[in-house]
C-alpha cells in the first residue's frame, strides 16, 4: 500500500517485490504465485539460496507494507521534554524549557543516552528518514550522525546555528559557529561517508542569526550543495520580533530569501501565518513546508492552512517537532493534521470550501510518506514502492500483540472470503482509517531502510 499522489491510495495485492543487496527495488510483480520464482525469472543467474524472500502471504490477518514514515522536522535534543510545555508559547517556551535542555547535551555521555533513545523510538514508530536538529555543539552532533549510521536510519543532521538573541550559556560567536558547522559537514562527508547520512544547514530561526551568519550560511549551502532547514512564521510574537529586527525586509519569508536560504532543498517548519505573496515566493523557490500540527496545537502557535499550501503547489510533509510536539510518532502527527484541517473547516461558512479544507486519511498518509520525501528532495529515492527506489518500509499488522485496533468478525470474513483479495478498495480504506485513528507503534512490527531491517534491531 502506498500513496503515489495526494489523496490517492494504491493497493497492490498478491504482489511480489525484489530488493537487491544495495536496497534498491528491482522488480514489482503483480499476480505473483511464487516470489522465489519471480526473483529467478528476473535474474536468471540467481540461485534460490541467494534470495531472501519477505513474504506477506505468510502473514495471517490484516498485514500490509507501507512506505517508511518521513519526519521532516524533529529536534532530537529536545526528546527528554516530550510532553512538558505547560501553558507556554514559542518564545517563553524556548527560554524556559528548551535552551537549558539543549545546552546540557554538550556533555557527550548525556547526549549519547538521549540520541540513542531517539533512534530506538523513531525506528520503532516506523520513521525511516528524519531531518534532525541537534544542538549548537559539533561533537555531539557528530555523535548523532554516528548513531544514525549505526542504527541504519536515513538522516539529515542539523547542527543548530545561533549567534545572537540567545542566552549567554547557549550561543556561539560567528566564527565559532562557522567553524563548528564546517566540522560537522566535513565529518559526515569525509569521515563517516554513509550515503544515508547528510549534513543540513540549520539557522535556528531568523531572530537568533546575525546577518553575517545568514549571509555565510546561504553561501556555504550553495557552494557545498547542502540542504537547509529552519523555522518560518510559527508564532505571532515571533513575527513581530522579526519585523523589528529586519525592517528592510518585506516579510519573514523575504528575510530568508534575502540571504539565499530559500532553495529547492530548503525545509521550512510551521509556515502558519503566511501572506499570499510569501506563498508565491516559497513556490517560486521550490522550498518545502514541514507541517507540525501537534506542536502547533500544543504550544498554541496556530493552525497551518495546509490545503491552501497544497492548492498553491507547495511541497508539504509532516514533522513531529519534538518537543514543541509531544509525540515521536508520524502516525499520530498525521492524525492531528487531519483534525486540525477539520478545525479550519469548522470556521469556514461556505459548505463547498468547508469540504475542500478537510484532509482525508489518504491525504495525510501521503504527507507522511511521499510528501515528506518531496520536501527533502528525495522523492526519486523513497516515499513510494517503485522500481529503482530504495526499500524503506514498515510492515503493519493491525492484529499485533497489544494492538488497540479492533477489526470485527464481519469485516474479517469479507477479507478472507475473497481469498485475501484486498483490492476491495473500500474495505482497505476502512482498515487504513482504523490504523490512522486507533493504531500506534504496536502495529509497526518490522521496519527496513534500504532493504536492511532496522527494527526490531539488535542492540
Ligand atoms: N523556533 C526556534 N527554535 C525553535 C524550536 O526549537 N522549536 C520550535 N517549534 N520552534 C522554534
Ligand atoms: Fe522546531
Automatic annotation (TrEMBL):
Keywords: Hydrolase, Metal-binding, Zinc. GO terms for molecular function: guanine deaminase activity; zinc ion binding. Residues 66-454 form the Amidohydrolase-related domain. GO terms for biological process: guanine catabolic process. InterPro entries: Amidohydro-rel, Guanine_deaminase, Metal-dep_hydrolase_composite, Metal_Hydrolase, Metallo-dep_hydrolases. It comes from the Eukaryota. Its cofactor is Zn(2+). It comes from Lachancea nothofagi CBS 11611. Pathway: Purine metabolism; guanine degradation; xanthine from guanine: step 1/1. Pfam families: Amidohydro_1 (PF01979). Binds 1 zinc ion per subunit. Its EC number is 3.5.4.3. The keyword Cytoplasm does not apply. Belongs to the metallo-dependent hydrolases superfamily. ATZ/TRZ family. Catalyzes the hydrolytic deamination of guanine, producing xanthine and ammonia. CDD domains: GDEase. This is Guanine deaminase.
Amino acid at each position: 500500500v502506498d500513496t503515489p499522489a495526494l489523496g490517492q491510495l494504491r493497493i497492490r495485492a498478491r504482489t511480489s517485490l525484489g530488493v537487491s543487496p544495495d536496497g534498491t527495488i528491482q522488480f514489482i510483480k503483480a499476480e505473483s504465485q511464487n516470489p522465489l520464482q519471480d526473483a529467478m525469472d528476473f535474474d536468471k543467474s540467481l540461485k534460490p539460496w541467494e534470495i531472501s524472500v519477505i513474504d506477506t502471504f505468510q502473514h495471517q490477518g490484516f498485514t500490509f507494507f507501507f512506505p517508511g514514515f518521513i519526519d521532516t522536522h524533529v529536534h532530537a535534543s529536545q526528546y527528554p521534554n516530550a510532553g512538558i510545555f505547560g501553558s507556554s508559547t514559542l518564545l517563553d517556551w524556548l527560554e524556559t524549557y528548551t535552551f537549558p535542555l539543549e545546552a546540557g547535551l554538550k556533555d557527550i555521555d548525556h547526549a549519547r543516552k538521549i540520541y540513542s533513545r531517539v533512534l530506538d523510538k523513531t525506528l520503532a514508530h516506523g520513521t525511516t528518514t528524519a531531518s534532525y536538529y541537534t544542538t549548537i555543539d559539533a561533537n555531539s552532533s557528530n555523535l548523532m550522525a554516528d548513531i544514525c549510521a549505526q542504527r541504519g536510519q536515513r538522516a539529515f543532521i542539523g547542527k543548530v546555528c545561533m549567534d545572537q538573541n540567545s542566552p549567554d550559556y547557549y550561543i556561539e560567536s560567528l566564527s565559532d559557529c562557522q567553524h563548528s558547522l564546517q566540522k560537522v559537514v566535513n565529518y559526515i562527508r569525509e569521515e563517516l561517508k554513509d550515503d544515508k547520512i547528510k549534513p543540513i544547514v540549520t539557522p535556528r530561526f531568523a531572530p537568533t542569526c546575525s546577518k553575517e551568519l545568514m549571509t555565510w550560511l546561504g553561501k556555504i549551502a550553495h557552494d557545498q550543495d547542502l540542504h537547509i532547514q529552519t523555522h518560518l512564521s510559527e508564532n505571532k510574537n515571533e513575527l513581530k520580533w522579526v519585523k523589528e529586527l529586519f525592517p528592510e525586509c518585506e516579510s519573514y519569508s523575504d528575510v530568508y530569501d534575502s540571504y539565499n536560504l530559500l532553495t529547492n532543498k530548503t525545509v521550512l517548519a510551521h509556515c502558519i501565518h503566511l501572506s499570499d505573496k510569501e506563498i508565491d515566493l516559497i513556490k517560486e523557490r521550490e522550498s518545502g513546508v514541514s507541517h507540525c500540527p501537534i506542536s502547533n496545537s500544543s504550544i498554541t502557535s496556530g493552525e497551518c492552512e495546509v490545503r491552501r499550501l497544497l492548492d498553491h503547489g507547495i511541497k508539504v510533509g509532516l514533522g513531529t517537532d519534538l518537543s514543541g510536539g509531544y509525540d515521536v510518532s508520524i502516525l499520530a502527527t498525521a492524525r492531528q493534521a487531519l483534525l486540525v484541517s477539520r478545525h479550519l473547516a469548522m470556521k469556514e461558512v461556505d459548505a463547498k470550501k468547508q469540504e475542500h479544507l478537510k484532509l482525508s486519511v489518504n491525504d495525510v498518509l501521503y504527507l507522511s510518506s511521499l510528501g515528506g520525501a518531496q520536501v527533502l528532495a528525495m522523492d526519486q529515492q523513497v516515499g513510494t514502492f517503485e522500481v529503482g527506489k530504495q526499500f524503506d518500509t514498515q510492515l503493519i499488522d493491525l492484529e499485533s500483540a497489544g494492538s488497540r485496533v479492533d477489526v470485527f468478525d464481519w469485516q474479517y470474513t469479507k477479507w478472507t472470503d475473497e481469498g485475501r483479495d484486498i483490492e476491495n478498495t473500500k474495505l482497505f480504506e476502512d482498515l487504513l482509517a482504523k490504523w490512522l485513528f486507533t493504531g500506534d507503534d504496536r502495529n509497526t512490527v518490522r521496519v527496513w531502510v534500504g532493504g536492511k531491517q532496522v527494527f526490531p534491531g539488535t542492540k
